[in-house]
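Minutes, project check-in

Agenda point 3 was the complex the collaborators sent over. CS summarized: two entities, 890 residues total, and the question is how they sit relative to each other. Sequences were read into the notes so everyone works from the same version.
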Amino acid sequence: MKLLFNRARRIVGIAGLALSLSTSMVYADTPADSLVVGWQFDDIITLDTAEVFEFSGAEITGNTYDRLIGYDPDDVSKIFGVAAQSWTVSDDGKTFTFKMRPGIKFSSGNEMTAEDAAFSLQRAIILDKSPAFILTQFGFNADNVKDKIKAVDASTLTITTDKAYAPTFVLYCLTATIASIVDKTEVMKHAVDGDMGFAWLRTHYAGSGPYKISQWKPSEIVVLSANADYWGGAPAMKNIFIRHIGESSVQQLLLEKGDIDIARNLETEQLKAVAGNENINLLKKGKGTLYYLSMNLKDPILAKPKVQQALKYLIDYKGLEQTVWAGRGQVQQAFLPKGFLGALEEQPFSLNVEKAKDLLAQAGFPDGFEMELIVRNAPIRIDTSKSIQTTFAKAGIKIKLIPMDGKQVLTVYRARKHQLFFGGWGPDYQDPHTNADTFSKNLDNSDTAKSKPVAWRNAYAPEQMTQDTLAAVLEPDAAKRAEMYLAIQKTHQQDAPFAFIMQEQEVAGLRSNIEGYILGPSFDSNSYKHVVKK
Amino acid sequence: MSQHSVKGGVIAVFFSAIKLHKVKPMLHFFSMLAMTFIGLLLLTFVIGRLMPTDPVIAVIGDKAPEALYQKTYLAMGLDKPIITQFFYYLAGVLQGDLGTSVRTANLVSDDILNYFPATLELATLATIFGVLLGVPFGVLAAVRQNQWPDYCVRFLGLIGHSAPIFWLAMMGIVVFYQHLDWVAAPEGRLSVTYEYTLQKVTNMVLIDTLLAGDWGAFKDAFAHIILPASLLSYYSIAYLSRMTRSFMLDQLQQEYITTARVKGVSEFAIIWRHALGNAWVPLITVIALTYATLLEGSVLTEIVFSWPGLGRYITDGLLAADMNAVLGGTIVVGTVFILLNLTSDLLYKVLDPRSR
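CS then shared the predicted structure for the full assembly.
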């Protein structure tokens, strides 16, 4: 037995040696000239700007590509030229002429011209990927786009729309990811079978932004390298290492230990935990994403207006803001997020069980009813749904919660097979039409409709509001346009089968030596360009 | 004589030259192999298609217009019967085309070459730890049955079986990373300093760092793998020690052990050479199954440690309705099981004289 124990001791010795090998590591802070970010970016499925439509992908391309114009993340009404130095709009409101900024170079070394800009927009329309509707809504298609969007000369680009839309509507759409300018020569070098370089650009880079994409390993790491020749000046950080850290509690630990400089997905509990840490600052920014409860009007109970009203009075808006969403959301009860042109900020609904019971009685349901609520299996959505379940129960409404994977929920929702749905919606660009187009417009409520906006998914088809929405997008005067959207939202707030609850606030945890990181109102405006380490 | 009959004669002579009793088992083996793979793929394919997730949404997202939805639906062949879709997929597989992943935009075969080595490295190290500690612990428990070493091993085994890996992993991180600072951050396989610069040859970072002759990178890789491998090995240790104890108790009660003791053979030789020598035979299967389980089932550990492994790849693929990724991963897992079964069969023959 002595031998047995001697051998056991030897094994323990080997294990000890292994541990000492690991403990001999020196864990320094992150490199002084690089930024390390912990983030859940497993939604990135492509790097081609004609296809990117996910939050994380939009942020990566937002930092690595130039677009014709941009906006101030603190005041989105301030629009300025980026790759375009200036622009004019024709008297009939249909033709936009852009003068390109001279001296912009792609990472390949090629100089950017109006031909690159025209090619990028044409390519996005011809490829016709998910976000293409942002451009095709101006009457462009694969057949006419080369006539409608063209380079007049090396420094002049013209875009001609089919109608005279509100100019800001057109301009905001050109700030979207799909309007990013790609290097035509480089992309076409890799074109195969007429794919305009699509297969190649999905995993490669051909841009001119402050950073270039050096590496993308799905759900693992994204490496951005500074573009030393950037026309706006080279960024201070030579590299941005973005690591996929799926667990928010692990992000917290890494941030506290200084192994990452920025944690992007801290949950409510982690935010509380790091709040008193002097080495960590919290950066907050209201995002455009709205969270709402929707009611499918195909259900005979939910089709009753009094029931819809009652449910809106059975949500504890303030309680949710202070508990589940503490620091991560603000109550918003209209379909436009705060900060958008014409956003309605009135909050007529609050938890009022007595009023809700009265409305239910008037609707013929004094004892309530049973209902299913589908929701994506994510902590904050589940917690919000549980709160809704609790407050609904006070009026006798029994909610059966059905948590599902994100894509399963969408499958049911898009087929309008749900009763109640709780979920989020993020705007695609900074113009109010982005949300109005989906929440207040439904041209065809049949099952075989060609267009299926969120209003359709809930069988909501308001004729007058649809016409008002179509009119608002053509109004050139910004003040009048804002009034039109306010009026639409007031009616929508009362009559539509949607209870808007919360507007998301993004919170990032930063080591205290990090400055210059910008969180914008959308993910593509989150910027690493000005980041410095003190 | 016609040319045809000459050819037939040659073939007949060829087959008669080969000993039929040697060919038959091989043919049987390969037909079983093909059937297993086709069955596995068909089952996975059908389950994937029956899942209440629309695969079109995985490709185009939630906001794409209806016209694009319809176009993609047809392009993916979803209007065809499931069995037709499956045969299209199978035809691709037989030509070496596993398709493209919706989630990563890469060829599935490339993804597997990237993710599988990460899992292989982690599971191999965990299994080595598991065997090195689990087997001696099991022997110790059997030799000291119903004494404190036995109780300790059984108690450790009980915790290993009952503690959720997710919780155990978080505890490990808090203790060994946050407080003791013994291991590297749970951020993946390498620090950013090396992640971007290391030349990947095998995609197993411990080996690649050695091949590169970069001692600093090797230490960094080791500091990253030691905790997840140890935690995974804890489960192997728990299972292997219990199984070893059971097999050893069985062997120690055999008459040949009594005979050996009567003949004056040393206790060490009785335990380690005779009893354990025979216990190895069933243990090989147990070890092979443990290894196979670790190769496909360490998803939670991979999530907590941000480890880019195959388990996470398959799970994420399943949740995203990325069926090419799931089916590609299934082929790998199936192959692993078959290869490990074959290996354990071969080792049986080496270790068990009766099967030679």
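Noted in discussion: Residues 120 and 295 of chain B are 6 Å apart (CA to CA).
Follow-up: revisit at the next meeting once the mutant set is ready.
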